[in-house]
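Problem: given the chain below (254 residues), write out its structure.
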Amino acid sequence: MAEHSNKPMNLFIWLGPAWGLLVLGTGIAVFVTNFTFLSGVAALWKAPLRFLRLALNLTLPLVFLPFCCRLLQGLINRRGRGLIGAPDVYLSLSPVKVWMVRPFQGIGLSLLFASRLLAVLQGYTGTPIRATEVLPTGYFQFGRFLVVTGLGILVSLLLSLAWALDDLGVRYRNDRTGEVRLMGRFLGVILPIGFGFYGFFNILANVPFLEALAAVFQMVVILYPPFCTLAVVHAFYLQRYGDHLLRCLRVDLT
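Solution.
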């Protein structure tokens, strides 16, 4: 079963990079120049509110992770094939994983889904999508809010399930072929990041390259804090509920 790491962990310390980048971006928007699509004193409350909304949008779906695990095991566990795992799994937080790899995994996957959605809408309407319709506006739009919320829930559930399978060492065994595969590695690291950024640049093809590059950079600054928060909270979630998830997956530990 999953066991806790022997190292003491402090949630607030592990969230430091997320909050640090949020404070830095807000400070630039307030005192220097228009940044992360905000400017002036209004950024002092708009930037934290946006971060809180995105972070909750990504972390609250964790409550559905046990249901996703039950659904997955129902689809996979059959006679002669199913999920297996190691008897002992030591869950520990890795700075490289929760501060670098997984936040950018989430950003890349979000940009990939967003670019695919925008491409479908563009093909459906038959008119090119303007950059002003793609990038954040700095003010609330109900339609954009619904799209971002739905996209965030989808990305959160996919990432959370893949990360849980990876961290818990869950593997897929096929007795007929003797094949054993790691389940949590299907998402990869490079592919969602590369395809996500490439797809989003394509959406901004009608924008001068330097402006498009600046816009994507600002999107990364906006999305890093909430995705870093998801990575950290997910790791703490597994520390507490890893055993329950293994039971939901009906993992064979023998």
